[in-house]
């Protein structure tokens, strides 16, 4: 289910009910064609524009894996800012369902601007959308994108390169750590422009005694060749 977001050629996330059902069933939601090829190329080309970014991280220096990523600076590029703002409302609705399931009283506001005001009040003022680049042999270790006490529970990644043409290998990987059981692993098949929505660090799962927290991590498997770009959209800001 996609719909226009006010810009030609752009799509939106499914409705909150659809997102919630897929997350319950699989732990993630694949969104085909969230960006079209020209938008993917536009974003990937920005990696060589230093003025667009506030920080540049080489993963190997921090034992995060191999590859590199850059956090966008304010103001965010219009496409990134628009995508972040339009994806937030249905994800906030899902997040509030999760809060209710876990018996938590706090709720997320309907608009991204209001949520970012909450982040800024908590001292988290640095934008977190990022652009990632992997070359042959690169990979991203399993991790969680938490940048302070204020954490929005969902995020998304958009693949900007075309598998089989631009790169080989480099699959998006999710793990779920289940209580008293072995972890479950999912490899999410993505094409250029597809997005995957997933939990930042945990999601509620139904158990015999109600809902419990299912801890999650995500990463990228080793690239066999080529070059892979991806856009990460994280909804909370960083300290």
Could you walk me through the main structural features you see in this protein, from its secondary elements to its overall organization?
The protein has 239 residues and is an alpha+beta fold. The protein has one domain (16-234): Jelly Rolls, CATH 2.60.120.620. It is 23% helix and 33% strand. It has a 7-stranded antiparallel sheet. Strands 3, 6, 9, 10, 12 and 13 form a 6-stranded antiparallel sheet that branches. Residues 1-6 have low confidence and may be disordered.
Tally of individual helices:
4
Write the CATH architecture name: Sandwich
Which strands sit side by side, in order, in the main sheet? 1-11-7-15-5-4-2
Low-confidence stretches: 1-6
> Beta-strand percentage?
25-35%
Distance between the termini: 35 Å
CATH topology: Jelly Rolls
Number of strands: 15
In short:
The protein is of the alpha+beta class.
Q: What features would you highlight for this structure?
A:
Jelly Rolls; 6-stranded antiparallel sheet; 7-stranded antiparallel sheet; single chain; 4 helices; 33% strand; 239 residues
Write the layout of secondary structure elements.
Blueprint: H1 16-26, E1 28-31, H2 37-45, E2 53-58, E3 65-66, E4 68-72, H3 78-101, H4 112-121, E5 130-134, E6 139-143, E7 154-159, E8 167-169, E9 172-177, E10 184-188, E11 195-199, E12 202-207, E13 210-220, E14 223-226, E15 228-234
Antiparallel strand pairs: 1-11, 2-4, 3-6, 4-5, 5-15, 6-13, 7-11, 7-15, 8-14, 9-10, 9-13, 12-13
């Amino acid at each position: 289910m996609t719909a226009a977001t006010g810009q030609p050629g752009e799509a939106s996330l499914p409705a909150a009910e659809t997102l919630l059902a897929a997350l319950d069933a699989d732990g993630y939601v694949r969104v085909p064609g969230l960006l079209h090829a020209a938008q993917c190329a536009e974003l990937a080309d920005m990696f060589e524009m230093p003025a667009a970014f506030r920080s540049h991280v080489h993963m190997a220096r921090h034992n995060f894996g191999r590859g590199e990523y850059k956090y966008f600076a304010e103001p965010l590029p219009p496409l990134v800012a628009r995508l972040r703002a339009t994806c937030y409302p249905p994800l906030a609705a899902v997040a509030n369902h999760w809060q209710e399931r876990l018996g938590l009283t706090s709720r997320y506001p309907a608009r991204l601007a209001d949520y970012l005001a909450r982040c800024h009040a908590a001292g988290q003022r640095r934008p977190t959308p990022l652009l990632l680049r992997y070359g042959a042999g690169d990979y991203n270790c399993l991790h969680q994108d938490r940048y302070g006490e204020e954490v929005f529970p969902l995020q998304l990644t958009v693949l900007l390169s075309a598998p089989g043409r631009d790169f080989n290998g480099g699959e998006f990987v999710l793990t779920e750590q289940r209580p008293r059981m072995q972890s479950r692993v999912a490899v999410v098949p993505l094409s250029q422009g597809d997005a995957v929505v997933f939990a930042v660090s945990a999601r509620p799962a139904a158990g015999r005694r109600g809902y419990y927290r299912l801890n999650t991590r995500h990463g990228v498997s080793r690239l066999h060749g080529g070059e892979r770009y991806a856009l990460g959209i994280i909804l909370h800001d960083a300290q």
